[in-house]
Specification:
Distance between the termini: 92 Å
Number of strands: 22
Number of helices: 4
Shape: elongated
Largest sheet: 7 strands, antiparallel
Helix content: 10-25%
Strand content: 35-45%
Length: about 400
């Protein structure tokens, strides 16, 4: 059995034992899995140089394993940034790639689409590339070469985007290498969206490899499954970049994923984010909240509801003091005629909006309406005593507050 196949078998075993069956809804964030022992029974990696470890920890990374570092992206709770190093780190990364592949395959079984199949094939290519990198690292180790050597005579620092430089030891030549990476998975006003990007640049002869992928899938209000994927295959060089994006209309079964990856020497730096939620139906109710009706007159109150983020068409049910009124319309109005004596009352206008999603989403909004018929005075101080101002007209009142 070749080293490539043995690595693949071990990674699959890792996925099944640690992560379990892949989620149908989408990939889970990177798990804190122990890297498996490789076929050569080699000792575990000690990890990158301690000064590199210290600098990663100073930047908010958590050390999951000696060769695996992770941090949540600021203001993006479902976005994760991972740095792996050496054979153990890339074995762990291989397990994560296998988990992502299995989740895509499971989703394809539910929602088959040519675009999703393209993403599956692209992910299989990523796995083959990681296997090739592992074989290269293993051969270097067996030959006694130092792990993590740069393609140039030496290198001094790596910049993660706009962050301060991370020193990587003494260098024969002066070189600054910049790794750019970003990913997002979110919801637009109409459905799931994703983006992924990666970039590598160096001021010397160092080279790096970049790749990115974006996937979006969702079911629209007509029951159509919409899928769009964009893959930027791996590109290697001294100044390379990848940019991808994807978005579709969807109100149910939403899924989006974005990732960007940069590999440099024995380090691979990945940012990934996955979304499996749809927009929740929302509504706002506006209209009359107070109304004065003069003696002998009629006045009209009107209300309007605005719904968004759900599957159209919307349905409307209006209630006035809990009695069904109106029509299946976003607006409702009613007239108030003076009864011939002064009075004040507080009524309730309620509307329930439902959308066309399956299952349907509903949201209810309520307004209180105070109606004053001329000849009545509103009690301005709740909890105060209420006394007739005119014995012949008990509806006309005054208040006495303690």
């Amino acid at each position: 059995m070749t080293l490539r196949i043995m690595f693949r078998v071990l990674s699959i075993a890792l996925v099944l034992s640690v992560l379990g069956m892949a989620s149908i809804l989408g990939p889970t964030p990177y798990a804190t899995a122990q890297p498996p022992e490789d076929p050569g029974n080699r000792p575990a990696d000690a990890g990158p140089p301690q000064d590199v470890v210290d600098q990663l920890l100073d930047r908010g990374f958590q050390r999951l394993q000696p060769s695996i570092f992770e941090r949540a992206v600021e203001n993006e709770p479902s976005s994760y940034e991972t740095v792996v190093y050496g054979i153990d780190g890339h074995l762990w990364l291989l397990g994560q790639q296998e988990a992502f592949l299995q989740s895509l395959q499971a989703r394809y079984e539910r929602f088959p689409a040519p675009e999703l199949l393209d993403a599956i094939l692209a992910q299989e290519t990523r796995i083959e590339e990681t296997l090739a990198l592992l074989e290269e690292m293993s051969e270097q180790e067996e030959a006694g070469q130092a792990s993590g050597a740069s393609s140039s005579d030496g290198w001094t620092a790596v910049r993660l985007g706009s962050e301060d430089l991370i020193s990587m030891g003494q260098a024969v030549t002066s070189c600054t290498t910049t790794l750019e990476r970003a990913a997002s998975a979110d919801l637009s006003a109409t459905g799931p969206t994703a983006s992924g990007s990666a970039g590598f640049s160096a001021t010397c002869t160092d080279i790096g490899t970049v790749s990115a992928m974006s996937i979006a899938q969702g079911t629209d209000s007509s029951g159509n499954v919409n899928t769009f994927t964009q893959d930027c295959p791996s590109d290697t060089g001294g100044d390379v970049s990848c940019d991808t994006s994807a978005s579709v209309d969807g109100v149910s079964d939403c899924f989006s994923s974005g990732q960007g990856t940069v590999t440099f020497g024995s380090f691979t730096h990945t940012v990934s984010e996955t979304n499996t939620t749809c927009r929740s139906l929302s509504a706002s109710l506006t209209g009359t909240t107070s109304l004065f009706v003069p003696t002998g007159s009629t006045r009209t109150g009107s209300w309007s509801v605005s719904a968004s983020n759900g599957a159209t068409p919307f349905n409307y049910q209006w209630l006035y003091n809990n009695a069904a009124v109106g029509t299946d319309s976003p607006t409702y109005s009613r007239s108030y005629t003076h009864p011939g004596f002064g009075a004040t009352r507080s009524d309730t206008v309620k509307v329930t909006v439902s959308d066309a999603a399956n299952p349907s989403q509903t949201v209810t909004k309520t307004l209180t309406v105070q109606v004053v018929f001329e000849g009545s005075v509103i009690n301005p101080c709740l909890g105060c005593g209420c006394f007739p101002l005119d014995g012949n007209n008990p509806e006309i009142v005054t208040t006495v507050c303690p």
